[in-house]
Design brief:
The chain is α+β, with helices and mostly antiparallel strands. It has two helices and four strands. About 40% of the residues lie in helices and about 25% in strands. The mean pLDDT is about 95.
Length: about 100
Amino acid sequence: MRLVVEFELKKYTDRELRFVIKDEDKHSLPNLVAKLALKKRGVVYAAYIIDHPLVSYPEVVILTDGSRDPLEVLQEVVAEARVYAQELLSKVEELVSKARK
């Protein structure tokens, strides 16, 4: 199963990246991206904004101190999230395997 999520780029500069995640789950992915981005070197602000939870989608904001490209930060965040997802899947498969025995 492959999820289809649309994204809209709002702003991209050498210090700031803003994009909208058009998905019905309006908190999980933007929250993960913001939390992981905050831990990255050079990031001074990372969050997501929802104007109204019923009629708008979350806008993710990553702001750096200028020492890093915010798109580079996002690439690191996605790679880290992928590792977490793989670890989660591995642990769950291990638990299911033990439960079947």
